[in-house]
Amino acid sequence: VDRAFPRSSRGSLKIARVLVALATLLCFVASGSHKAYVALAGMETVLTILFLLLYLLKLDTQMRWLCWTLADIINSVIAALFLLVVCLFAVIMRTNKGTLAGGVLGLVLLVLCLVDALLLCKTMNIGKARGRSAAK
Predict the structure, then answer these.
(1) Measured between alpha carbons, how far is 12 from 10 in angstroms, rounded to an integer?
(2) Range of the domain at 129
(3) Interval 61-90: pLDDT, tens
(4) Which residues form a coiled coil (predicted)?
């Protein structure tokens, strides 16, 4: 277990994403919102928990057959796009206060997804020199 990860900026951002996604899910479920809203919030909660566990248990270093950072970036960007569409509909339609609260929390989650994607892009090693074959 990587005990330093939850205290890092990436770890605390993942934990914040899980908490906001869970709050969004609870708002949508409690208000009886459209099933698409509930499905998106639930999917985002589960995927973020899985990535959090992946990094927390250091499974990304053990399973090297996939670039987990890139997969996390793609997940964050796609989640942000879906959240933009769905949460704007939830805020515009605002069938009740729970749907409105879920839509607003979903827009906060959208910002967290974009910040997470930017932080992950900064940690990628694309274009950096590697090993002995790099020019000196």
Answers:
(1) 6
(2) 33-134
(3) 788 887 878 888 999 999 999 999 999 998
(4) none
